[in-house]
Structures are given as C-alpha cells and as structure tokens.
Write a structure and sequence with these properties.
With 202 residues, this protein is an alpha/beta fold. It contains six helices and four strands; from the N terminus they run H-H-E-H-E-H-E-H-E-H.
Amino acid sequence: MIIPDAPRNCSFNNKSHMALNLNNWFSSKYGSRRGFVLTWWYRLLYQLGAYRAYCQVDWPSVERLVFVCKGNICRSAYAEAVARSLGVKSVSCGIDTQNGVPADDDAIRVAKSKGIYLKGHTTISLQSMNFNKSDLLIVMETWQAEYLQQKLGGEYRCTLLGLWGNPKKPHIHDPHGASDSYFEQCFNFIEDSVHEVTKKVR
C-alpha cells in the first residue's frame, strides 16, 4: 500500500527541512555550528569571571590601536578601516599570514556596502610589526590574546574587541568562507565595538 508510506516520507521531509533551516540559522548568525558553540562557550566563561583582566585598559595612555586576527584579510582589516574612518590612529596585522596579501573578496564587497573600502588593504604579518609601548593590541579571539602574551612576553597591552560590544562576546568568529548574512552580522558587531573603543581613546 502507498498510503502507509506517505506519513513516513512526509516526516522525513519535515525533518530534513528543519535540519536545513537550522543549518541556515547557524550559518547566518554564527558562521557555522562551530561558531555557535565557540561564541556561547566563551560568553559563558566570561559570565563566570574569565577574561575580566582584558577590560582593564589605561585609555589615556593609548596612542594607537593595533587590531589583530589570524589572517588580516577580514576582521582586523575591517576594524582598522572603521577606526581610521573615525579619525583614530590604527593599524592591523595577522598572526598566521604573510605580507602583501589583499583583503578577502567577500570582505571587500560587504565592507563596501557599509561605506568602508578595503580594496587597497594588504596584509601585515605579526612578525613584521613594530610595536610601541603606547599601542593597544586588540584581538578577535581568546587564543589570539594568549598567543600574543606568550609571543610578546606580556610587554604590550592587549584586549578583546568583543568585550567592548553589546552583548559582550570574547569570541568574534572568523567570517572567512561564511555566508554573506554572517559576514554582515560580524562586520556590524565589529563596527559597533570599534565605535565604543574609539570613544575611549579620542
């Protein structure tokens, strides 16, 4: 009989549709399922008291913002461009990159739609950066802060950009390779957070 099979097929189709919708939601809001888990895990740790030291910044002594992410082709590049557009001295670099790589094509396109231009941006590696004592290093993820502390020996001040946004997010998931909707959401959060930071240094 065909009729008894119909409910089972319908149920399977409904579950497939629900799974697809869920995947789309993860993709648009967090970049991926992994992005969802990491975002909420680090927000929980922050609520439990972790990363509060990164909120302790002597703002009057900050003369330059140094935005740092993994590749310097999306997040830190955009953050630098936003800060510069607000008249604040800023640079950016990447922990795992080489010099001279252009910004990500999707990042260029999404940034342009928001009035920020990354077309002329090229990467700078962390190793080739010249830091000053008056710099504030601003990272996108907790592992990046820990890496900088190990690499630079705690010689320079560091904070997490997401701790200055609303809501506070110690982890800003990498939009590289993600959907346009997540790119836009990520860049909106970065822009809002940079605005809050620049208010403190101007």
